[in-house]
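Action item from last meeting closed. Structure (261 res):
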């Protein structure tokens, strides 16, 4: 956006009839209406730009009606952000609200808000699963892990490849064991928008495996008093096995984005 002074001036125009040339109706006839300005919202949202471009003027304004899945409380955060309101950053947010803002910000193409909401979603501590002995049967544990996966999956849907570094730390805490279900594997195979989720799982499990190999190597040395069986670890030294385990380095991602942009 602009300077703090400019943003404060824009905020005075938020939902102000003066000079408004958009009447936005959210959540149907019984929802909420907003008086907005094309000169403000269109340059800052691809969604608004496309919608306004496809809508004719009715009198002095364009009448925009949004689908029922666009909730007023989430829409309010997005348009206020466009007008310079940054209270979303300062005020405590629930996990569900942050996730809804992330989803709508990505849909509307408001990148700064998308990144801000994503960081809030990744800040929420992941609950630790109960010890296996506390489950009556395997289905209880599966239901718990499936619920955790739904949140991870939804957050990843609001992310992009540029967010890899943010997600890596999140996954290190959230994924402690194999929790991929057959259903999720099929979804990953069938939906391209889950590509980021698939890549993060691959990297995380690669790290778990390499640490396991490193640990086995160390134990083998301790047990044998020398080098481990070369047939088991023919090309991995203790030093190599324990160094940085990220498949992709940040510079690799930058080079890839440079080639594909």
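Sequence:
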């Amino acid at each position: 956006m602009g300077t703090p002074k400019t943003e404060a001036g824009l905020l005075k125009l938020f939902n102000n009839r003066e000079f408004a040339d958009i009447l936005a109706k959210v959540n149907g006839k019984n929802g909420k209406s907003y008086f907005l300005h094309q000169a403000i919202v269109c340059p800052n949202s691809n969604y608004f730009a496309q919608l306004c471009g496809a809508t004719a003027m009715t009198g002095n304004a364009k009448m925009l009606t949004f689908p029922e899945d666009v909730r007023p409380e989430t829409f309010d955060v997005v348009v206020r952000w466009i007008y310079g309101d940054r209270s979303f950053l300062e005020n405590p947010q629930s996990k569900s609200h942050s996730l809804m803002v992330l989803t709508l910000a990505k849909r509307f193409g408001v990148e700064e808000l998308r990144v801000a909401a994503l960081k809030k979603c990744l800040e929420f501590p992941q609950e630790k699963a109960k010890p296996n002995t506390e489950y009556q049967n395997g289905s209880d544990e599966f239901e718990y892990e499936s619920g955790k996966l739904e949140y991870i999956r939804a957050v990843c849907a609001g992310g992009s490849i540029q967010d890899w570094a943010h997600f890596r730390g999140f996954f290190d805490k959230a994924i402690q064991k194999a929790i991929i279900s057959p259903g999720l594997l099929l979804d990953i195979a069938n939906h391209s928008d889950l590509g980021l989720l698939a890549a993060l799982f691959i990297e995380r499990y690669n790290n778990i495996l390499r640490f396991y190999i490193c640990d086995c190597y160390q134990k083998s040395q301790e047990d044998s008093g020398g080098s481990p069986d070369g047939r088991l670890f023919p090309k991995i030294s203790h030093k190599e096995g324990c160094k940085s385990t990220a498949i992709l380095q940040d510079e690799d991602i930058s080079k890839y984005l440079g080639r594909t942009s």
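Note appended to the action item: The chain has two domains: 4-123, 145-260.
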